[in-house]
Amino acid sequence: MIVHLVDGTYELFRHFYGLRRFAADKAPPLGAVAGVLNTVLGMIEQGATHVGVATDHVIESFRNRLWSGYKTGDGIEPALLTQFEPLEEALAAMGVAVWPMVELEADDALASAAHLAARDERVARVSIWTPDKDLAQCVVADRVVQVDRRTRDIRDAAGVRAKFGVVPERIPDFLALVGDAADGYPGLPGIGRVTAARLIGRFGALEEFPPETLGEQRELALLFKQLATLRTDAALFRDVDELRWRGPTPGFAAWAGRLASAALPERCRRAASAAR
């Protein structure tokens, strides 16, 4: 089986701003939610059997206590923010495994789910659907891969090395040095991607760097590495078959009505029949 793990927060943003570009002020109140559900259902219609979606139920996490500049919910448009919880509820009603994160982030849920699924010998591949460079650290050979929906690129370990210049397990070290503007930490001054990859290729993990290499900035770099390192210990499921999609719940028709998506229930019915 192939396990598909979806970054629900990314998908919600993607659909929200996609509607903004094409529908302007005519976008329906839950239009982004409907877009994500159509995306996930489309994956199921194309053969996905085991699917899990991770969301940021709140934007802040334990990392905000470690670094004051870490990303927050400030600046997120209210029209987008109000769709987070409906997305989680609508996905659950559609019968999809969904993990709303509070203390951890959606990225931690994806990392944890990939770790759990990859331990199961029945799983041939784990596909993590997000372009977020943080998730590159979860890639394992060609067994756990990252899929960029925008480009349709499938990035295995060789692809991660080609893109970043380091192996997947060194991505937290790489991000600690170069920073991640989306997450709100700057990296170390004067160290770009090429220099970071060269240093890591020479010395390995930041902890193994000679003291003089980073000097007084060593502790800051280690803090940034802590921010960049995804957690894999979230107890999201006990058996990978908990991610098998078996069709929508009885309450899904009401959700389809709220989303003004009359075709969704029938599409679900056909997909569930085909999956049996």
Features:
single chain, 276 residues, alpha/beta, Rossmann fold, DNA polymerase, domain 1, six-stranded mixed beta sheet
Helix and strand arrangement:
Elements: E1 2-7, H1 8-23, H2 31-45, E2 50-56, H3 63-66, H4 78-81, H5 84-93, E3 97-101, H6 106-118, E4 125-129, E5 144-148, E6 153-155, H7 157-164, H8 171-178, H9 193-203, H10 211-214, H11 218-228, H12 252-258, H13 264-275
Parallel strand pairs: 1-2, 1-4, 2-3, 4-5
Antiparallel strand pairs: 5-6
Helix pairs in contact: 1-2, 2-5, 2-13, 8-9, 8-11
Task: Give an overview in words.
This protein has 276 residues and is α/β, with parallel strands linked by helices. The protein has two domains: 180 residues, Rossmann fold (3-Layer(aba) Sandwich), CATH 3.40.50; 64 residues, 5' to 3' exonuclease, C-terminal subdomain (DNA polymerase, domain 1, Orthogonal Bundle). The chain is built from 13 helices and six strands. A six-stranded mixed sheet has the order 3-2-1-4-5-6, with helices on both faces. The two termini are 15 Å apart.
